[in-house]
Design goal:
Number of helices: 11
Radius of gyration: 20 Å
Oligomer: single chain
Distance between the termini: 7 Å
Order of helices and strands: EEEEEEEEEHEHHEHHHHHHHH
C-alpha cells in the first residue's frame, strides 16, 4: 500500500459521449483528492469557506467558484473546511476534447479556447465577472435534452470564458510538471536552463550570457516579458519542485530544501511560509490528510 497515491477517478463518459453534466445540491464536500483523464469545468455556489486544492495551490473560496482543469495528472479537491452552508450547489462538467492543432479545434475560430485549455493544465480560476456572464448558460445546461444543443451551449460557455480577463492559473508549472513555453526565444532558453538547473546556484551573469545580453538589460527584459523579477521566478520554480517532493516523497524537509536549490533551511522555511501561507511541514500534513490509500 502506498500513501502517496491518490484516487484516479474513472469518468462516466463512455466511448462516443461528449459531455457528462452533474448538477446537484449538497450539504458537504466528502469526495477525496483525485485526478482524471478527462477535462473538467467545476462550478461551486454558496460554499464560502470551502478550501479548494489544485496541485500546490490551496485557497479558501467565496460564494462563487469556477475552475477549469485540463491536465490528467493534476490532483484537486474541494474540502469542507469552514463552510457551514447546507445548501451548496455544484455543477461538474466533464468532457474530452482533443485540442490538437491538426484537428477541428486547431482551426482559427477556436484559437482562444485552445489557448485557455492549455493554460488550464495548471488549473484556471475565473473571476466573478466572468462567472456572472456565463451563469445563465451554466444554470440551464443540465436541463437541455437535445445533446447537440447542450454541446453547442457548452462551447459558448468555453468561448465566453476564453475571452474574459483576470483568469488565474493555480498550480505552479514545476509542480504540474509542465514544459516551459514562451513566445520569446531568449526567454525560453533561459527558462529551460533554470528548469534543468534549479537545484544549483544560478547567477545573473550566466543567465544573461545565455540570452546574449548584459545583466542589467536582461533583468529589465525578463521583467518586461514575464511580469516577475528573475529572482522571484527562480524562487517560484524551486518552491514548485519542493512542494511536489513534499507530497510525493518521504524525504526530510532539509533534504528537499537543499535538493531544490535552497542552501539554508531557515531561509527555505521562511520563503515557503511567506509564499504558501503555511510551513513545509504543515503543507505536507495538510496534503496527506486529503490523500487516500489505494
Amino acid at each position: 500500500m502506498d500513501d502517496k497515491k491518490i484516487i484516479h477517478e474513472i469518468s462516466p463518459l463512455m466511448g462516443k459521449d461528449v459531455l457528462y453534466i452533474a448538477d446537484r445540491r449538497k450539504k458537504e464536500f466528502t469526495y477525496p483528492i483525485h485526478n482524471h483523464v478527462v477535462q473538467e469545468l467545476n462550478y461551486v455556489e454558496h460554499a464560502k469557506g470551502v478550501k479548494r486544492i489544485v496541485g500546490d495551490s490551496a485557497e479558501v473560496i467565496g460564494d462563487f467558484d469556477l475552475v477549469l482543469i485540463t491536465s490528467p495528472d493534476l490532483e484537486h479537491v474541494w474540502e469542507q473546511n469552514e463552510c457551514v452552508n447546507d445548501d451548496i450547489r455544484e455543477i461538474t462538467i466533464q468532457f474530452d476534447f482533443s485540442m490538437d492543432e491538426d484537428g477541428f479545434f486547431g482551426r482559427n475560430p477556436y484559437f482562444s479556447i485552445r489557448k485557455m485549455m492549455n493554460e488550464a493544465r495548471k488549473g484556471l480560476a475565473f473571476p466573478l465577472e466572468a462567472i456572472m456572464r456565463i451563469y445563465p448558460l451554466l444554470d440551464s445546461l443540465s436541463s437541455i435534452k437535445d445533446g447537440f444543443y447542450a454541446v453547442q451551449q457548452f462551447m459558448t460557455i468555453l468561448y465566453e470564458l476564453s475571452k474574459c480577463h483576470g483568469a488565474r492559473t493555480l498550480a505552479s508549472s514545476s509542480y504540474a510538471k509542465l514544459a516551459v513555453e514562451d513566445d520569446s526565444r531568449r526567454i525560453l532558453k533561459v527558462k529551460n536552463y533554470i528548469s534543468q538547473n534549479y537545484k544549483y546556484e544560478l547567477r545573473l551573469t550566466a543567465l544573461a550570457d545565455i540570452a546574449g545580453m548584459s545583466p542589467s538589460a536582461f533583468s529589465r527584459f525578463f521583467k518586461l516579458r514575464t511580469g516577475r523579477n528573475l529572482s522571484e521566478y527562480i524562487i517560484d520554480i524551486r518552491l514548485g519542485y519542493a512542494s511536489r517532493m513534499l507530497v510525493d516523497t518521504a524525504r526530510s524537509i532539509s533534504e528537499i530544501a537543499f535538493e531544490c536549490g535552497f542552501n539554508n533551511l531557515s531561509n527555505f522555511n521562511r520563503i515557503f511560509k511567506k509564499k504558501k501561507k503555511c510551513s513545509p511541514s504543515e503543507f505536507r500534513e495538510n496534503y496527506h490528510k486529503t490523500r487516500v490509500i489505494v
